[in-house]
């Protein structure tokens, strides 16, 4: 692991601009001043059990109260809200039915071709109950894992809530992943069923999904999977296997519209979501019921300053954690109106996002820096054609945002009046950890600002000692929090080693290592610089270099591969692969193309290398470890600096340079 970061932000640390919260926001916000934030943070620090316990009782509905807030006697394995029973789907639906929210819109969905579906809380409740009953009807029981491989259709949200309702953990696999990647996740999670669709619409085309499920299951590759439920979206012809495949509409329409929410233990598994790490295959991040519900509920309320009349839109895909926490669970638990969009901006409709904001009078908009940079590049002519005066708050997530993009977002999209919340978090953290609070925190472009109350974030050296203001170090969290991941599915040791013991516990206290580098300025503001491990962030999508390398070496022409990220103006990072070929293979355009296609088939199009270079050897240490630091420098055309004395064969460097 190297300590240098792919995003150096010296310039960012020179950033002097500060934007104060507007009175209009502060007057109504749930946390309305910096002193209120500090007071809450102090309360959370001095008596965390009381802070979290009070919040859990106040914000959530419990079937049975918990008798202990946190058990941290066996770190890093935490138990939150022991003894309590609750159900996340109940908290997202049922509890709103006895209030004015029952007939409020819960979900507004827009398909790429422009078809719109709307669900009030009551209507969503009915759909979820029917789906929950359908899952039971095909034999899904509490504790069974259900995989979702879906386009962005309302049924994805409905299926997730239905799983939560009957206590069947879900494992959502991003629809852009390949059949191979899906198969790995189905096998690892021992999924009992897969919910999918014939396909979805993307960039003006119908993209098929069901054939990938068929291919993943071929030859009984995933023996645990008994059934596949298929949503009809594109009406393309797909194969349906008898006794295994069911059409969603046929299965669900006859079901009863009532299904009691299963009382779940606080620590019952809610979902598994796979994410890339620096070693091995993607790991199944496990989240559990109560802590995740509390954390997504509270953070959504604090950060998005949600009001009853808001229409909130997060552009993520439900296949990622942002979709889980901030399209579905956080907003619905708060009784908000959440928008879901199947499509993306595309040449035929570059203003797709702004059109949606205008059409649905969206007031809160949450997207990724990579999208903002792409819009910025094509200028303000397109956004200026739309009325976006409904917007009052803007958010970003997924990667560091450069100050220029931040300012552009604020001025051009937010009309200069909308505060920006730059939210730092991860699949593992369940919800946002570091972010401005729009009514309280003065913002600085490019900084995620301050940790949320209850989050003891810090920047430390390799020994876990806090570094001085302005110095770079590892971003860590010093205490457990309710939304933290509980383990790596099937591999508790990996959980322990990669996150909580990567930095050796100091005075017996475990420290959570996030994998990111950061600095803190003199005001205590966090400036996240990007990953310090072998994870690359391409357009906000997280990929392990090892995964891409494994995909490359599974091609018969490749004997060895090393993958690094190169800074990219639009994507944040671009994938550059160095390969050594089997003897007798020619490195020509046909092979380069073949290798790119091969990676896309093995993992998914998001992992397709931007550039592939060939070399007859890779730079390695004497112990055989590839020196990625050198390759990163070469990939970005920089001088190779630092110590190269550990190189096994120094001539390799000259050859690579040549
Ligand atoms: O490197 C950080 C970056 O995204 C990583 C987490 O990726 P993932 O688990 O896929 O979750 C993405 C959505 C929460 C982090 O380790 N990251 C996320 N948000 C930010 C960020 N980097 C800088 N600033 C952010 N606001």
Would you write up a description of this structure?
This protein is α/β, with parallel strands linked by helices and 658 residues long. The protein is built from 20 helices and 30 strands. The longest helix is centred in the first third of the chain and has 17 residues, at 121-137. The protein is globular. The chain binds adenosine-5'-monophosphate-propyl ester. Adenosine-5'-monophosphate-propyl ester is lined by residues 275, 321-322, 397-400, 422-427, 448, 514-516, 528, 530-531, 537, 542.
SSE order and pairing:
Layout: H1 10-13, H2 23-26, H3 34-46, H4 48-59, E1 68-74, E2 77-82, E3 85-86, H5 88-92, E4 105-110, E5 116-120, H6 121-137, E6 146-149, H7 154-166, E7 170-172, H8 179-189, E8 193-197, E9 199-202, E10 205-208, H9 210-217, E11 227-231, E12 245-247, H10 248-252, E13 264-265, E14 269-275, E15 283-288, H11 289-304, E16 311-314, H12 321-333, E17 337-341, H13 352-360, E18 364-367, H14 369-378, E19 393-397, H15 403-413, E20 420-423, E21 457-460, E22 472-477, E23 487-488, H16 492-500, E24 512-520, E25 526-531, E26 535-538, E27 541-544, H17 545-553, E28 558-568, E29 572-581, H18 589-602, E30 611-614, H19 628-635, H20 651-657
Parallel strand pairs: 4-17, 6-7, 6-8, 8-11, 11-12, 16-17, 16-18, 18-19, 19-20, 29-30
Antiparallel strand pairs: 1-2, 3-13, 4-5, 9-10, 14-15, 15-23, 21-22, 22-24, 24-25, 26-27, 28-29
Helix pairs in contact: 3-4, 6-7, 8-9, 11-12, 14-15
The chain binds adenosine-5'-monophosphate-propyl ester.
Adenosine-5'-monophosphate-propyl ester (PRX) binds next to helix 12, strand 20, strand 24 and strand 25.
